[in-house]
């Protein structure tokens, strides 16, 4: 028999999976004992079979030589990981990378396995998979993989503790001997072949975007919106500070610093999934808008042939080439550079693999698959046509990433580099290529496209002459410092430097810390310095910490374990994972990749500093720059014993300042002359004293540990009289501890900087406390009077004169931010004609009526999300329209927007509460419209995920289905139009069939059916429209109709219905018009700048085609009651809607709900794209209209998607089932008059005869319509005539 996957069975299966996860989520798929010197690479491959929210629940154990289990020796870090991901745990990095051409995901000394060792995989402290027998030495056994490999067969495992040798294939022992790479092996390790691979960040929710690229442009791609308009780009404004530096004859280093700040500002960091979508626009083939151009081959390939998910196994598809290899400085998506599309290009999968992570240089031999390119063992040479493009991308990377953010300082050097270095060569060759291949129009257009999606530009395309400024000829003399980095020469022995000055490895617990000491004799900028931890004898660094801020001469910087006791944490400047060390682990201190100091011997796993506190000897002022030699701490260190913490926080009796001098000599004393904050802020966008050191004295108004700094405001008596200059400033201390208290009057010295255009003071030491004082906030209101107002208040303590409304919660779960305004903001073209003065004025007001409430947490996907009060959850939502009644905080600027850093917890009021069902006055027939947010059901049998859109796996599908069923049940409409449902036909495994089945199971009866138009698919798009209906309420009249005119990419579906109570008919046409995304738009379909975005001309043509169809089609035009519903991707006053209302149709939402109706939120503005448009005849029969606000008001974090959403965000309820609200219209349809129906119940029976006889007998006034024999009077002869008109035999009643 066939097995149907019912709603109940799916729910049970999902419940089993949820409780079992992650036990069956991680599969051990491969082990290798490599042929290189030392037997490397030694590694295991694992496959993520199901999404794992927290990978730290799992780990690996390596059972050596049959000695039994060693337990879980390596634990994965805390991070989420998607199904379809391959993970590699290796004993080291360099050998693995050399052999495979890509870096391992994780390294552990415990992974130093041989071919006779068994492997165990643990999740939640339980063995979930096993290779070999931990109690048996594998030498000579069937599973022996000495100098070879073993690989799991597809569709097997995990096996728990029961190793099944028949599930594995083997290379045979010694099969890899003599090979230098997997690519050249006679029996290569079948890497990543166990199952379909999904790139992290791909797939998922495709809703919420109407101004960018529709994700359907490529396979498994998300939508992507624009954040800038290249047509409005001003070179003079964008590069103003660079021009100033050049005009002032600044040196290359200074120019590079300014340029780095310029191109870092407004840089939106894309997800790796969004990169797919972006590249379809940035690298679009100019001769074929359906294709992209491959960077190395130069050939054109379909955008849809991207190597995502199940398409990744085809080597002829295209993928995302990191032109600066990600193994050179940014190995994961946590680094900004990983998804920076300035250096990401479409490339043939196999060509990309051949290029690997090689440096750029003149190379020896043509690449066989793309002979315009050349390759050898240590370098890659791209084809001539893109050599200059490649060079300018590399100059951009070297300039953009200076160590100021998560990505380390990337450096171009004139030498060959190795994997793991944040460097790439060869600089001189790139300069040569730049000169030989100048900028062309294609490169310029790509720069414009990137600007629109990522927000920043490549300056070496806009100004190629700047290459000569930053990369002078003397950069090609063989030095390794990189272009213009001012990194200085490598540390020479004996030079005073930043050094390790104290080491604490406490006994019993996590009392661990390291201290750094500035022995240089001058203030030291810590940018570019990095602390690295080498665990358990590994030769590759694991945890690392990039330092920031400024350390005064003689100052110390304390890095502690977050689990340390209060004594350690009291003096800590920061906590970091580089303190997760034991007494056999090694530490390095590097500056721009050069070794400055070390503690221990890299590669040696012997204990050497267990349970001990060590301080550096006073005479040591330079570091140990050889971390490979034997280490004896007695040579340079003094032991203080075990668990001694009293010396931490000072070195040689010093915590800062010049040795032997007055530590406050430069800072001065309280009350001494200081620079006014208003003088630092100035009355323009940037400080007039930028990059100068200044002393300020003022009152602390907010101390923010998460921001590692505090706000200071000038005392009222010191304010200037300039309304355009701020009296407040943020002081970046660089530490989350020892911050001054609110109300302290402090004196602090620091460097004035423009941090992403925010004026701030970077402290050069601890502040001096000078008493206390109170500050009254400045009361402000929205909308701002003009755009300059918030800049004039930057850093100041403010409150508001009015209640604030929540206007934007789109990124609440992702970044913790909330958009606020004085009342809602509405899409201008929802209220006014596009391009009209009123629409333009509203757009400007919206811009001024916006401020962000910041949560002060810089991490993405914070857990918990602190807004609203009590933290965000499925049952504690924060909806747009809710209000904030008290808000006190500092006006700040970051991430390209003004925001409030709260000084007190905000007060939230649930002013826009959820409703359990639509509030609607109902007639005899109710029609609803709902966009179902890419509802795809896999193969209909529980598998087949991920599909082109929608849910990534069965769990997400079940979550989406449960929400959708509950929403449809609560709507209780007689007819439902659906948009964005999978276009997979109408069989029992189709999405619409299984949705209908699940809905009926929930209702406990066969209440709904779906319209089957008798075709396999409607059109060719991945998504389609559909119709559900209640057979007890309405019946189908005639066949359904599909409009296949070429103007429709998603054809409309029409169906006539008749009300079962009176036979009244109406025609419903369900639609999904062309989206506003601009991918491929040209001519009249390009953005006209009137607020209607792209493809407006197409949408108008679709509206007109629909109007003509309803007027001329014989079946459809026979009924005057016509209703157009669906997602028309046009707001109320836009041209497509006015095409209907100007041709005998009525916008029912506008006439019955009002001008401020909405069903969709975009960019903090509300409007409706979801319509109910009725013919005038039908409009007269409306009983009620409503939009049920279950989606547009809700944070997207509450939907079914699990990618970034924490478990507490989801509940099986109707809220955030989609990004569009459903629209419901109820009618009192008037039935066709039935001759002889005296009592008006739609038929003629004995009740009508009796009623007419009584009326005649009592001499009532009777309608002459009942003069059935037409003799001019109503009498008993008409009763006789009525009996001949009876509906049923014998004039029977029902």
TrEMBL record:
Taxonomic superkingdom: Bacteria
Signal peptide coordinates: 1-20
Biased composition, class Low complexity, residue ranges: 304-314
InterPro entries assigned: Dockerin_1_rpt (IPR002105), Dockerin_dom (IPR016134), Dockerin_dom_sf (IPR036439), EF_Hand_1_Ca_BS (IPR018247), Endo/exonu/phosph_ase_sf (IPR036691), Endo/exonuclease/phosphatase (IPR005135), Endonuclease-I (IPR007346), ExeM-like (IPR047971)
Biased composition (Gly residues): 201-210
Listed Pfam families: Dockerin_1, Endonuclease_1, Exo_endo_phos, LTD
Record keywords, A-Z: Signal
Region Disordered, residue ranges: 186-210, 303-325, 355-381, 474-495
Residues in LTD domain copies: 486-603
Domain Dockerin, residue spans: 1231-1294
Family from the record: Belongs to the EndA/NucM nuclease family.
Name of the protein in its database record: LTD domain-containing protein
Species: Bowmanella denitrificans
């Amino acid at each position: 028999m066939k097995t149907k996957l019912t709603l109940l069975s799916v729910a049970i299966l999902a419940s089993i999976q949820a409780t079992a996860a992650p036990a069956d989520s991680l599969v051990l798929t491969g082990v290798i004992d490599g042929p290189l010197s030392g037997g490397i690479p030694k590694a295991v491959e694992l496959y993520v079979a199901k999404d794992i929210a927290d990978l730290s629940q799992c780990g690996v154990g390596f059972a050596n030589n049959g000695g039994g289990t060693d337990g879980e020796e390596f634990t994965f870090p805390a991070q989420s990981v998607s199904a379809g991901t391959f993970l590699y745990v290796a004993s080291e990095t360099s050998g693995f990378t050399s052999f495979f051409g890509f870096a391992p995901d994780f390294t552990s000394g415990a992974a130093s396995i041989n071919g006779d060792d068994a492997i165990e995989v643990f999740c939640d402290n339980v063995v979930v998979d096993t290779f070999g027998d931990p109690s048996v030495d594998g030498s000579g056994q069937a599973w022996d993989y000495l100098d070879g490999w073993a690989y799991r067969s597809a569709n097997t495992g995990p096996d728990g503790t029961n190793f099944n040798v028949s599930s594995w294939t083997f290379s045979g022992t010694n099969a890899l001997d003599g090979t230098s790479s997997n690519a050249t092996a006679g029996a290569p390790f079948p890497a990543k072949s166990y199952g379909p691979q999904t790139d992290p960040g791909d797939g998922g929710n495709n809703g919420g975007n109407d101004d960018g690229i529709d994700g359907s442009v490529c396979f498994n791609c998300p939508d992507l919106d624009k954040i800038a308009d290249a047509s409005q780009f001003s070179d003079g404004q964008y590069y103003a500070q660079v021009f100033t530096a050049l005009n002032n004859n600044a040196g290359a280093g200074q120019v590079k610093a300014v340029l780095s700040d310029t191109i870092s500002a407004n840089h939106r960091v894309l997800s790796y999934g969004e990169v797919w979508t972006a590249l379809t626009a940035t690298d679009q083939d100019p001769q074929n808008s359906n294709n992209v151009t491959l960077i190395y081959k130069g050939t054109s390939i379909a955008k849809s042939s991207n190597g995502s998910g199940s398409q990744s196994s085809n080597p002829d598809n295209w993928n995302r080439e990191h032109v600066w290899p990600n193994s050179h400085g940014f190995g994961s998506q946590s680094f900004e550079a990983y998804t920076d599309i300035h250096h990401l290009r479409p490339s043939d999968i196999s060509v990309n693999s051949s290029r690997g992570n090689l440096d750029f240089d003149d190379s020896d031999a043509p690449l066989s698959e793309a002979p315009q390119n050349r390759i050898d063992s240590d370098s890659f040479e791209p084809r001539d046509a893109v050599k200059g493009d490649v060079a300018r991308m590399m100059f951009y990377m070297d300039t953009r990433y200076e160590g100021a953010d998560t990505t380390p300082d990337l450096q171009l050097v004139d030498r060959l580099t190795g994997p793991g270095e944040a460097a790439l060569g060869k600089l001189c060759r790139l300069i040569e290529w730049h000169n030989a291949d100048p900028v062309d129009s294609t490169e310029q257009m790509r720069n414009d496209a990137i600007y629109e999606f990522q927000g920043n530009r490549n300056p070496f395309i806009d100004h190629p002459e700047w290459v000569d400024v930053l990369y002078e000829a003397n950069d090609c003399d063989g030095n390794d410092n990189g272009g213009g980095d001012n990194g200085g020469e490598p540390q020479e022995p004996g030079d005073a430097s930043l050094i390790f000055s104290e080491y604490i490895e406490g006994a019993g617990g996590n009392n661990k810390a390291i201290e750094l000491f500035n022995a240089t004799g001058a203030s030291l900028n810590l940018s570019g310095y990095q602390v690295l931890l080498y665990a358990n004898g590994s030769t590759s660094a694991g945890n690392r910490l990039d330092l920031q801020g400024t350390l005064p001469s003689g100052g110390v910087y304390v890095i502690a374990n977050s689990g340390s006791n209060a004594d350690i944490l009291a003096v800590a400047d920061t906590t970091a994972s580089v303190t997760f060390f034991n007494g056999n682990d090694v530490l390095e201190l590097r500056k721009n990749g050069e070794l400055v100091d070390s503690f221990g011997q890299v590669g040696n796993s012997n204990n050497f500093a267990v349970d001990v506190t060590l301080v550096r000897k006073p005479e040591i002022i330079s570091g140990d720059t050889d971390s490979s030699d034997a280490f004896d701490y007695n040579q340079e260190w003094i032991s203080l014993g075990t668990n001694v913490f009293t010396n931490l926080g000072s070195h040689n009796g010093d915590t800062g300042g010049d040795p032997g001098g007055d530590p406050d000599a430069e800072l001065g004393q309280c009350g001494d002359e200081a620079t006014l904050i208003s003088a630092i802020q100035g009355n323009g966008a940037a400080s007039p004293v930028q990059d100068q050191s200044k002393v300020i004295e003022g009152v602390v108004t907010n101390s923010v540990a998460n921001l590692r700094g505090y706000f200071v405001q000038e005392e009222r008596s010191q304010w200037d009289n300039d309304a355009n200059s701020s009296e407040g400033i943020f002081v970046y201390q660089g530490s989350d501890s020892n911050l001054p208290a609110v109300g302290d009057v402090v004196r602090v010295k620091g460097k004035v900087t423009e941090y992403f255009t925010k004026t701030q003071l970077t402290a050069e030491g601890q502040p001096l406390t000078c008493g206390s004082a109170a500050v009254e906030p400045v009361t402000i209101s929205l909308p701002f009077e003009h755009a300059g107002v918030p800049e004039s208040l930057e850093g100041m303590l403010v409150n508001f004169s009015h209640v604030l409304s929540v206007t934007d919660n789109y990124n609440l779960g992702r970044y913790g931010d909330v958009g606020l305004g004085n009342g809602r903001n509405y899409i201008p073209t929802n209220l006014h004609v596009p391009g009209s003065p009123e629409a333009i004025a509203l757009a400007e007001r919206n811009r001024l009526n916006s401020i962000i409430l910041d949560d002060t947490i810089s991490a993405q996907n914070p857990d918990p999300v602190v807004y609203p009060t009590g933290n965000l959850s499925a049952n504690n939502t924060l909806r747009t329209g809710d209000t904030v009644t008290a808000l006190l905080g500092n006006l700040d600027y970051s991430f390209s927007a003004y925001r409030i850093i709260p000084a007190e917890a905000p007060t939230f009021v649930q002013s826009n509460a959820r409703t359990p069902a639509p509030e609607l006055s109902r007639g005899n027939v109710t029609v609803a419209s709902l966009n179902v947010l890419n509802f795809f059901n896999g193969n209909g049998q529980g598998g087949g995920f991920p599909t082109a859109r929608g849910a990534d796996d069965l769990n997400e599908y079940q979550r989406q289905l449960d929400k959708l069923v509950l929403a449809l049940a609560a709507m209780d409409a007689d007819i439902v139009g659906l948009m964005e449902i999978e276009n997979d036909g109408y069989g029992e495994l189709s999405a619409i069939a299984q949705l209908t089945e699940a809905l009926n199971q929930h209702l406990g009866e066969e209440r709904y059916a779906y319209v089957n138009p008798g075709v396999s698919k409607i059109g060719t798009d991945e998504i389609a429209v559909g119709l559900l209906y209640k057979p007890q309420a309405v019946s189908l009249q005639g066949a359904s109709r599909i409009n296949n005119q070429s103007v429709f990419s998603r054809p409309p579906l029409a169906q006539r219905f008749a009300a079962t109570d009176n036979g009244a008919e109406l025609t419903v046409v369900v639609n999904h018009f062309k989206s506003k995304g601009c991918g491929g738009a040209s001519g009249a379909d390009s953005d006209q700048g009137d607020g209607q975005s792209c493809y407006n001309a197409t949408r108008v043509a679709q509206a007109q085609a629909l109007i003509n169809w309803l007027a001329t089609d014989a079946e459809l035009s026979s009924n005057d009651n016509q209703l157009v519903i669906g997602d028309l991707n046009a707001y109320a006053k836009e041209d497509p809607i006015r095409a209907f209302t100007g041709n005998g149709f009525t916008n029912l939402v506008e006439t019955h709900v009002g001008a401020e109706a909405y069903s969709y939120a975009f960019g903090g503005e509300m409007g409706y794209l979801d319509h109910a448009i009725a013919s005038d005849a039908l409009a007269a029969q409306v009983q009620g209209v409503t939009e049920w606000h279950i989606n547009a008001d809700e944070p997207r974090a509450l939907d079914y998607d699990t990618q970034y959403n924490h478990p507490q965000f989801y509940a099986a309820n109707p809220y955030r089932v989609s990004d569009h609200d459903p629209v419901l219209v109820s009618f009192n349809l008037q039935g066709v008059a039935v001759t002889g129906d005296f009592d008006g119940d739609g038929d003629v029976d004995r009740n009508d005869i009796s009623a007419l006889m009584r009326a005649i007998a009592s001499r009532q006034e009777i309608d002459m319509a009942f003069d059935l024999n037409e003799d001019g009077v109503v009498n008993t002869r008409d009763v006789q005539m009525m009996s001949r008109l009876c509906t049923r035999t014998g004039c029977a009643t029902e």
